[in-house]
Design brief:
Distance between the termini: 71 Å
Number of helices: 12
Order of helices and strands: HHHHHHHEHEHEEHHEEEH
Structural class: alpha+beta
Radius of gyration: 25 Å
Strand content: 5-15%
Number of strands: 7
Largest sheet: 7 strands, mixed
CATH class of the largest domain: Alpha Beta
Number of domains: 2
């Protein structure tokens, strides 16, 4: 048997990429109406291969007659799924740096939500993920995977909401989870004068590069915690400027988080009200 390429590794890579493509398409359409069409399309392909191998003249003629419109039919039938796949590629970290303008929309929704919550004196804790993954903290809350809007954020932190305690974690343009538990700050001197929300915001900012927006239930003031530092009493314009600065820092401009001080026994993780 002669390989397609002189190097067998390229053949294996070719097979792997095709298998990965079909697998990802299957995952995307699973549980949808497109899933049935996907299976039907695979059956047609298998019938065509069967006819080719066993030289079934009539079936081969039918397959050859319609193969010119297969590509167009594929694009029409799977238009939503293809659009979703392309959007997912554009959201990866490798391409995100080319699409920096897209972050302004999400930051704007966060600013609007913080302003509304501050006027109502409703406490909030909003974590915006950057490069450091926050999966451990996501797992402590309730998974949502909903599109970020100011209205959704305000609703989540309304006193009647079952998810208003704890933090919401935002990743790209999605609210990944709500009611998440965050670690308290290890800087006991700074944290002594702060409420639980601000201590939790500082705690996470000491362990990751996330930006954490805090709305005080008592004063309605807005704060931002980043890299172990807390900026307080911000208005909506200052909040927008600070978030824009954080999310457009170059890697060489970033400062490493300060080394955490020893934590006394009994310091529990928390993201509840002040």
């Amino acid at each position: 048997m002669t390989p397609v390429h002189q190097i067998w590794l390229l053949d294996l890579l070719d097979i792997f990429l095709v298998a990965l493509l079909f697998y990802r398409l299957l995952v995307l359409v699973k549980g949808t109406r497109s899933g049935q069409m996907y299976v039907g399309l695979l059956l047609i392909v298998l019938v065509g291969l069967f006819a080719l191998v066993f030289d079934l003249i009539a079936v081969k003629w039918i397959v050859d007659s319609v193969k010119t419109i297969w590509l167009i039919a594929f694009v029409i039938l799977f238009q939503p799924e293809l659009r979703h796949v392309l959007a997912q590629f554009g959201r990866t970290r490798y391409f995100r740096s080319f699409l920096r303008g897209d972050s302004y929309g999400v930051l704007g929704e966060v600013v609007r939500a913080a302003e509304t919550l501050g006027k109502k004196h409703q406490g909030a804790l909003m974590v915006i993920e950057r490069n450091t993954g926050l999966r451990n903290f996501v797992e402590t809350g309730t998974r949502l995977d909903a599109k970020v809007t100011a209205e959704l954020l305000v609703t989540l932190f309304s006193p009647g909401s079952p998810l208003h305690d704890g933090a919401v974690i935002l990743r790209e343009d999605s609210v990944v989870a709500a009611a998440c538990i965050l670690p308290l700050s290890s800087d006991l001197k700074t944290a002594a004068a702060l409420g639980t929300r601000h201590r939790a915001a500082l705690g996470l900012s000491e362990e990751s590069d996330a930006a954490v927006v805090v709305v005080s239930e008592e004063s309605g003031g807005i704060s931002v915690a980043y890299r172990g530092a807390l900026k307080q009493r911000l208005d909506s314009g200052e909040l927008r400027s600070e978030l824009s600065r954080i999310f457009h820092l170059r890697p060489e401009e970033e400062e490493p988080p300060p080394a955490p001080a020893p934590v006394a026994d009994g310091e529990a993780a928390a993201g509840a009200a002040e």
